[in-house]
Design goal:
Layout: H1 7-10, H2 20-30, E1 34-36, E2 43-45, H3 47-66, E3 70-71, E4 77-79, H4 80-83, H5 87-93, E5 98-103, E6 106-114, H6 119-129, E7 138-147, E8 161-171, H7 174-195, E9 201-204, E10 216-223, E11 229-239, H8 241-246, E12 249-251, E13 257-259, E14 261-268, H9 270-279, E15 296-300, H10 308-319, E16 325-327, H11 334-343, E17 348-352, H12 354-359, E18 361-366, E19 372-376, H13 380-405, E20 407-409, H14 413-422, E21 426-430, H15 435-445, E22 448-453, E23 473-477
Parallel strand pairs: 3-7, 15-16, 15-17, 20-21
Antiparallel strand pairs: 1-2, 4-6, 5-6, 7-8, 8-14, 9-10, 9-22, 10-11, 11-14, 12-13, 17-18, 18-19, 21-23, 22-23
Helix pairs in contact: 3-7, 14-15
The structure holds one RNA strand of 77 nucleotides.
RNA sequence: CGGGGCGUGGCUCAGCUUGGUAGAGCACCUGGCUUGGGACCAGGGGGUCGCAGGUUCAAAUCCUGCCGCUCCGACCA
């Protein structure tokens, strides 16, 4: 039935059900999100990929500012002695930091690490600038890149250098710091769901999975198309541990010296990996409208016919005032353009040709469902934004349904393993709190605890591993 | 770090077994024609075959080492 021509190029993207990992790599490359560089494990963010990051940045930055945070910039180098100050922290990061040992040809008296995260730099600075309770809180954030010398890398999911934001705040009281930790986790959840259409599971990490040096770590976890989970954002409460290690003290109203309470929180370009793996399909990327660099792509048909380009340009100028609009008037075939912008995940396409112009109409085509709607040219200003909203809602609903369909419950480690082998996803199971049991789950079922969800429920009375009575529900899975 | 696969114009790959002056398709450039799901015709440009050694009269091809990419595993904010 279908014509053979052109099929070969469409097949350039491996089907997700054949080989999900290959599909992911194909999409990243074909959609021109990033490219490999000559440095192992480091990637080049191309304009289209970077534009996605800029949109995420803009959204989150507005949220940070709206909650009273200020942006700063710290150095990219950390002296070894400074990194050593908090022992859990250094133990966690030392194995994967990159070291600078020479300045020009001169050996340095103290080697410098390239920041894997900046807690130590912020702490050192906070210790200097805080004297009184009147100096608190300090609500700082920085947008930067960090370096972690990973053994294996994948575009967006794990690279030696990656872009992120790291928030670092200090507060007079533990309560205030704890509230900050949760507030930022909520902003991350909101970013995922309302901006990226990625449903998330909010919860607390077990001690085994928490951040090096943290008292508690909170996470928003999401489920990818292949059933593996990915941490989309993380928020840590440090208590006064770092404050003690770095001497961050203030004088309270009673004139007594107190340690500050600290938090940190971060989201990285890894979230773009989630975006790809949650919404993508066999034709390529599917971008939720709010984050899409191009929201509406205008494809004029039969551009050589009189009046087509003029009309398409007029429509583009009208739409560009409302949504991020592009028009392709290159002499490629329309079919080529359709495939190209589907691969790039553009949420909505507008086709306009001689027949449409005659009838004063355009054809709107949704990327997510490929549904075509014929709309009067007079109505596009209202219909396009409406459709974009519908697409966002549909993507979120679809992803939520997929997550629910892949969420099961287990009462034993064996059952958990059996479920994950059959259908990877989230598995709810009770846990006694003992790390030995958590280790056992990893050993037997090759699954890790994703989080202790805030929304607790009871799927059994006893620990899935040791059988001791417990009321704690943990969600398990296999993670990226 | 362990195991598998791969490295030849921008991309996908053939050529390697059996050594003998570098190939195809796509992409790109020029012109024509076409335009509602990846067109067609003609002409054109572009590669020290991942790197370094070795064997040989001669290496993309054989040998050794290294580097990189990729997948699986281990490790890991």
């Amino acid at each position: 039935m279908e014509k053979d021509k052109g099929k070969k190029l469409v097949e350039a993207i491996t089907s997700m059900d054949v080989d999900f990992a290959q599909w992911y790599t194909d999409v990243v490359k074909k959609a021109e999100l990033c490219d490999y560089s000559s440095v192992r494990g480091c990637m080049i963010l191309r304009p289209y990929g970077y534009a996605i990051w800029e949109n995420i940045q803009r959204y989150m930055d507005d949220e940070f500012k709206a909650t009273g945070h200020e942006n700063v910039y710290m150095p990219m180098f950390i002296p070894e002695s400074l990194l050593q100050k908090e022992k859990d922290h250094v133990a966690g990061f030392a194995p994967e930091v990159a070291w600078v040992t020479h300045g020009g040809s001169e050996p340095l008296t103290e080697r410098l690490c390239v920041r894997p995260t900046s807690e130590t730099l912020f702490c050192e600075h906070f210790a200097k600038i805080v004297q009184s309770y009147k100096d608190l809180p300090k609500l700082y954030n920085q947008w930067c890149s960090v370096v972690r010398w990973e053994k294996t890398t994948r575009p967006f999911l794990r690279s030696l250098e990656f872009l992120w934001q790291e928030g670092h705040t200090i507060h007079a009281t533990a309560e205030e710091a704890q509230a900050e930790t949760i507030q930022m986790l909520d902003i991350y959840a909101k970013t995922c769901e309302e901006f990226l259409a990625i449903p998330v599971l909010k919860g607390k990490k077990t001690d085994k999975e928490k951040f090096a040096g943290a008292e508690s770590t909170y996470t928003v976890e999401s489920l990818m198309h292949d059933g593996k989970s990915l941490q989309c954002g993380t928020s840590h409460y440090f208590g006064d541990g770092f404050a003690q290690a770095f001497g961050i003290q203030y004088t309270d109203k009673e004139g007594k010296l107190q340690y500050v309470h600290e938090t940190s929180w971060g989201v990285s370009t890894r979230i773009i990996g989630a975006l790809i793996m949650v919404h993508g399909d066999d034709s390529g990327l599917v971008l939720p409208p709010k984050v899409a660099p191009i929201q509406l792509m205008i494809v004029p048909i039969a551009t050589h016919k009189e009046g087509v380009i003029e009309k398409a340009t007029e429509l583009k100028n009208r739409m560009a005032k409302i949504v991020r609009t592009r028009m392709d008037i290159s002499d490629k075939q329309p079919g080529w353009k359709f495939s190209e912008y589907e691969m790039k995940g553009v949420p909505l396409r507008l086709e306009v040709g001689p027949k449409d112009i005659e009838k004063n109409q355009v054809v709107l085509v949704r990327r997510d469902t490929r549904e075509k709607t014929i709309v009067s040219m007079d109505d596009i200003e209202t219909r396009v934004p409406q459709l974009l909203d519908e697409i966002h809602a549909a993507l979120l609903a679809k992803a939520r349904a997929a997550q629910e369909a892949k969420t099961c419950a287990a009462t034993s480690v064996e059952e958990l393993k059996e479920i994950l082998d059959r259908q990877p996803g989230f598995v709810k199971a009770m846990w006694c709190g003992d790390q030995a049991c958590e280790d056992k789950v990893k050993e037997v079922a090759t699954a890790t605890s994703r989080c202790i969800p805030f929304a607790q429920e009871k799927v059994a009375d006893t620990c899935l591993c040791c059988g001791k009575p417990t009321n704690t529900l943990v969600v398990w899975g296999r993670a990226y």
